[in-house]
Amino acid sequence: MEDIVSKAANLSCDDDDEDCLVLEADTDALETLATTAVLGRLLTKRGFSVNHLNDLLRRVWRAIDGWSIQELTTGLYVIRFAKEDHLMAVMKTRSWMLSGPTGALLALFDWPTNGEWDKVDTSLLPIWIQVHGLPLMFMTQTNAAKLAAKAGSLIEIQGGGKEGIVGWKFLRFKVLVNLNNPLFAGCFVPCPSGGKVWAQFRYERIAALCHKCGILGHDFHWCFTDPAVVKSREGVPVWKYGSWIRSEALIKDCFEQPVYSTTGVEGRTAGQDAVEVHAVPPRCSPRADGISSASQYPVGAQEQNSPHPCTSQSRSTPG
To answer: What confidence score (pLDDT) does residue 175 get?
Structure first.
């Protein structure tokens, strides 16, 4: 801010330049905005009016009053707070889900000290990521850093040192994710004893994910790319993206997708189809509303107490 004040005080025009006029910069207003305002980017599959967004935020920020929102341009907003501590409380969680996981995601960014909001890079957002499916031998800080690099730029790893990670059910780290790129869904990890396990990436506090391309806020109906798929051990292609990408989902990974049967919907592993069972849309086509059917039927898809793929043959690992 001091640099801006200094530059503003030294503005000048050449004496013979009739097309130049020095104006007075209100640096006090800039300083106030920098401490009481944030820049918001709305990631959504459908249109939101500023009034509708205002109503949704009032439900989410019930404990905070005296704030206002104004649309700057399509998808970008300035949100002003009456108190700095209110701003800080909201910015502790930089991504806010609105209308559930299929609705919209509001990503928040620091308001620029120079006031040039249109030059702020709103493509990078810090997101906490969980990695499930790894055996205990791979639960290390070094491996967490390697996995984090697949999703973006590492910010921090939860758990200090070896003792802080070993024994957890999953790895957890914060990464600076590029919102313009598909989310990294996961990867196969070879095991010393043979075979491979699938490291499933699960993102915290995300919404409006396109189940075809994996980009947040991308409209499924206007996504003309082929669905991103990965093959199971049996060679069955399954969609990489679905409800399992969210940390709160019941389906543990992309290979445990439900199927239709004569008696209802059951959780099955890819390649485990019986004669009376037909594969669901994640292996065929999406629902008309843009949400893959697998994300809607978590029944029976909870984790099973089966041996780990590294110690026995896995039903969801490649040969």
So the answer is: 97
Task: Quick: pLDDT tens for 33-60.
Answer: 888 999 999 998 777 889 999 999 999 9
Digit-coded pLDDT (tens) for 242-254: 999 999 988 989 9
In DSSP notation, 149-184 reads HHHSEEEEESSSSGGGTTT-SSEEEEEEEETTSPPP
Residue bearing the bigger pLDDT, 22 or 132: 132
Q: What is the mean pLDDT of the chain?
A: 78
Higher pLDDT, 271 or 25: 25
DSSP letters of the chain? -HHHHHHHHT----TT-TT-------HHHHHHHHHHEEEEEEEESS---HHHHHHHHHHHTTT--S-EEEEEETTEEEEE-SSHHHHHHHHTS-EEEESSTTTEEEEEEEPPTT--GGGS--SEEEEEEEEES--GGG-SHHHHHHHHHHHSEEEEESSSSGGGTTT-SSEEEEEEEETTSPPP-EEEEE-TTSSEEEEEEEESS---B-TTT--BT--GGG--SPPPEEE-TT--EEES-SGGGBTT-SS-STT--EEEETTEEEE--TT---TT-EE-GGGS---TTS--GGGG--TT-SPP-PPPTTTS--TTS--
